[in-house]
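hey can u check if this looks right to u? its 208 residues, i copy pasted from the old doc so theres a chance i mangled smth
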Amino acid sequence: MTSARFWGKKIGMTQVFKDNKVVPVTAIDLSHWLVTNIKTQEKDGYNAVQVGLVRDRFNQKPFENEWLTDAKKYFYHLREIAFDGDMASLQIGQPIGFSQLMNSGEFVDVVGATIGRGFAGVVKRHDFNGPPGSHGSNMGKRPGSSSSYRSQGRIIKNKKFPGHMGTDLQVMKNLEVVSVNTDANVVLVKGSVPGKAGSLLCIRKSNG
């Protein structure tokens, strides 16, 4: 596969020693992805391969065509990847070794959703300072003035208020690939990436 974009599941953070220095890394699991569909120029108008992440209770079982009739039951996620290689080399149900597409020392961009924090106030959500801690202030953690438009029944666009926090799409660019374990299909990238353990990550080769 010659695609420069693929998917994995975040395992968590740890640290490794490199050149006698401690390097914080994030472990990403690239295993248990299967080919679920093949798109061709003749049939679909473009070349691509659809891959699916097998659910834990089925990842030790051999692939069956029945899985494709009820994809939500057998797969966590289905994703499509542009493919410009030999389409004849792909088969439905074939395992995809994403780790073979990466090498130590390369740089990648990792895209994921940040951890959801639920409903949050302005101090936590927008880093407001809050009221003074003395002189009898009873403001609490309220957001303060809603602007002069409030009397007209309107609020200035992008005014910072309490609300849902997290689950925002975030990109971490130019992360170094510290090591690649092709046997376990696990890759270690330097630094932190968005999301919690088990969340889906999109990995693409960095353009610099």
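The mean pLDDT is 88.
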